[in-house]
Amino acid sequence: MSTPIVGRNGVVKKAGTAIGYAKGVSVSIGVELVKDYALNSNKPAIVEDGNQSYKVSVESMYVDNTYAQVVLTGDPVDIELDPAGAATGKPKVTVKNVVFTNWKLDQKQTGVVMQSMEGEGDDLQLGTIA
Question: What is the spatial distance between Cα 95 and Cα 19, in angstroms, rounded to a whole number?
């Protein structure tokens, strides 16, 4: 039986560099369903997988406007998540060519100023750290 991965060991990287003070990351795969019906039947004539999407959101402590600038420029970046840490042989998930479309700054009277970014890439690769 495998051992569950503890979240605090994770590392999230933008273009190969760790995102400082990252608190959380979410990576999702979405697949559209191609389904259509023919006359005289209540069962689908075709059911196939369709277009895929790869979404990313990152939450980190705010230091400066670097990530806001990434959203404004629209330059694609690779986002790598190393859920079990950065040791050789551990799993990694890379979302390629992410264009961040949303940046949010959250400041409250108590606590640390936080920022979050959301975007979507054009490919997702599953592998292990070499």
Answer: 15
State both tokens at 25: 């990351």
Number of independent structural domains in the chain: 1
Domain ranges, residue 92: 7-128
53-101, pLDDT tens digit by residue? 999 999 999 999 999 999 999 999 999 999 998 889 999 999 999 999 9
pLDDT score of 1 more than 80: no
39: CB partners within 8 A, 6+ apart: none
Q: Is 2 among the domain residues? A: no
Indicate which CATH number applies to the domain containing 38: 2.30.110.20
